[in-house]
């Protein structure tokens, strides 16, 4: 049974989300009403397998659903992405027989909202290393000290997935990943006041000896990129669902641009702007770029679904990208977000000065889309990774 995006998120519901999005952007508040509506729809159980009691959507279906939600309320979609990244990673690990992430699916099934605490100040390695210190508590768990940034869902999460590094040079698997509950040892700052994506409320989180209980440890991994199922699941779900959100946002911008061009008239030329060749070319270029993004996203999401389900990848359809998985995932996210920014800018240029006003939905979309610049993998990281794949490390031939 498939999960259809339009059936799960009907137009009347999305109109309400769109109306509230403007209010939350203006007031810099979290969209609690959106969250409750999505809870009632079973959104938190979207990626929990049907045999465990969930909705049983594939990552491909989740990507399409997130594109649709982003067209109405981009910040709501981006915030909910964090829960879906965690459950998507747990689903991927579950499919491959790695049981450490199964409790996350149980949390989601019980209606607990999962958030993502991986980003840290100055930590360019992101998922593959951590500045947070994870000291043994002597009982099989860890006490975490560190700072996490861009913690979406900050006011409302029930469990926070974090990572930390076990001190010592002789530790074989120094990175530990797990989920923690909200306690007095977890401090959430009220520091989210941004250019765009304001309703995500992705605040800074400080861990002051927050306890990661033994039963909540998901995995331990080496430093650096690795093929651990949960790590691959996080990276893949994160990059592809981000790309989906920004593409859905930009698709809405093109829809608005088309409406504006069809009703806006040139007083001097006596034509609607839909007949202006420059406007036509700008909107067409935006649509062409987004069509390419959708095709790339859906191909790679299907490949990741197939990797988890064990589908035969020998034919012309799905592909196991082997050592190039991280390159492909980061590359699609980069291309899709850059295409989304470019598409929204083209729509703005085609739509006139009225949409420089804060009363315009298009103005809000133009700010929200720019958050894509800052999500991993960013422009510098992607180009650096591709350069290493093509040319090796700098200084390698000199023996440095």
Automatic annotation (TrEMBL):
Keywords, sorted A to Z? Oxidoreductase
Look up keyword Oxidoreductase and say if it applies: yes
Q: Give the protein name, as stated in the record.
A: Acyl-CoA/acyl-ACP dehydrogenase
Highest taxon of the source?
Answer: Bacteria
Outline the extent of the Acyl-CoA dehydrogenase C-terminal domain: 241-375
Q: Which Pfam families match?
A: Acyl-CoA_dh_2, Acyl-CoA_dh_N
Domain Acyl-CoA dehydrogenase/oxidase N-terminal stretches: 19-92
């Amino acid at each position: 049974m498939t999960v259809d995006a339009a059936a799960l998120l009907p137009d009347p519901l999305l109109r309400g989300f769109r109306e509230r999005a403007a209010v939350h952007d203006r007031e810099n508040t979290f969209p609690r009403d959106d969250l409750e509506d999505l809870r009632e729809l079973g959104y938190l159980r979207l990626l929990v397998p049907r045999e465990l009691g969930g909705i049983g959507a594939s990552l491909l279906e989740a990507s399409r659903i997130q594109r649709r939600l982003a067209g109405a309320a981009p910040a709501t979609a981006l915030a909910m992405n964090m829960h879906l990244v965690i459950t998507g990673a747990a689903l991927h690990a579950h499919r491959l027989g790695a049981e450490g992430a199964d409790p996350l699916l149980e949390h989601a099934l019980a209606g607990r909202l999962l958030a993502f605490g991986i980003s840290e100040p100055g930590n360019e390695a992101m998922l593959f290393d951590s500045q947070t210190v994870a000291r043994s508590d002597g009982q099989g768990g860890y006490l975490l000290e560190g700072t996490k940034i861009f913690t979406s869902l900050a006011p409302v999460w029930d469990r926070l997935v974090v990572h930390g590094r076990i001190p010592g040079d002789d530790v074989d698997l120094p990175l530990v990943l797990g989920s923690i509950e909200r306690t007095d040892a977890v401090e959430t700052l009220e520091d989210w006041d941004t250019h765009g994506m304001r309703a995500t409320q992705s605040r800074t989180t400080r861990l002051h000896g927050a306890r990661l209980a033994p039963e909540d440890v998901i995995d331990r991994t080496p430093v650096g990129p690795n093929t651990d199922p949960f790590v691959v699941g996080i990276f893949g779900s994160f990059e592809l669902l981000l790309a989906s959100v920004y593409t859905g946002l930009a698709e809405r911008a093109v829809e608005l641009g088309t409406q504006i061009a069809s009703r806006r008239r040139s007083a001097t030329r006596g034509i609607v702007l839909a007949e202006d060749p420059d406007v036509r070319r700008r909107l067409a270029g935006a649509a062409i770029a987004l069509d390419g993004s959708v095709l790339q996203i859906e191909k790679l999401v299907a490949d990741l679904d197939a990797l988890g389900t064990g589908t035969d990848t020998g034919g012309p359809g799905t592909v196991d990208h082997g050592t190039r998985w991280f390159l492909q995932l980061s590359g699609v996210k980069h291309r899709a977000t850059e295409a989304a920014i470019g598409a929204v800018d083209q729509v703005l240029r085609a739509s006139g000065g009225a949409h420089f006003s804060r009363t315009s939905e298009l103005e809000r979309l133009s700010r929200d889309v720019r958050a894509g610049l800052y999500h991993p993998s960013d422009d510098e990281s992607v180009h650096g990774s591709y350069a290493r794949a093509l040319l090796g490390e700098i200084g390698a031939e000199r023996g440095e």
